[in-house]
Design goal:
mainly alpha, about 75% helix
Length: about 110
């Protein structure tokens, strides 16, 4: 059985077939392993960025529900003719304050 020899650097440089260049590449094993690891880490980082944690999703859902509730109160305030215009401004300011405080509570709870 004949043993395959590695080509000399001159033969390697003269090789025109790309598959042979890959087969005979004289790259150290450690460098190849490092390159594969770097590629795998980059792919894992992309996956982590694309997936959202359940906690983020739950927090965003809570904030969306809260904003919907406040928006309904605003519609009620604006459409009710028994509320004087001076009081409407004060009610909207109060709703703004409560909305900010509630968002803070939700975000702090998520930490």
């Amino acid at each position: 059985m004949r043993r395959l020899r590695s080509p000399s650097p001159k033969q390697f440089a003269l090789s025109t077939r790309p598959e042979r260049q890959l087969f005979y590449r004289r790259e150290p094993v450690a460098a190849r392993i490092a390159a594969v690891r770097a590629h795998d880490e980059a792919r894992c980082a992309q996956r982590r960025e694309s997936m959202m944690s359940w906690l983020k999703i739950e927090t965003q859902g809570s904030i969306a529900a809260l904003e919907h509730l406040i928006r309904k109160f605003r519609e009620l305030i604006d459409t009710d003719s028994s509320i004087p215009p001076e009081l409407r401004g004060a009610l909207h300011a109060t709703l703004d304050k409560h909305l900010i405080e509630a968002k803070k509570r939700i975000l702090l709870k998520a930490l």
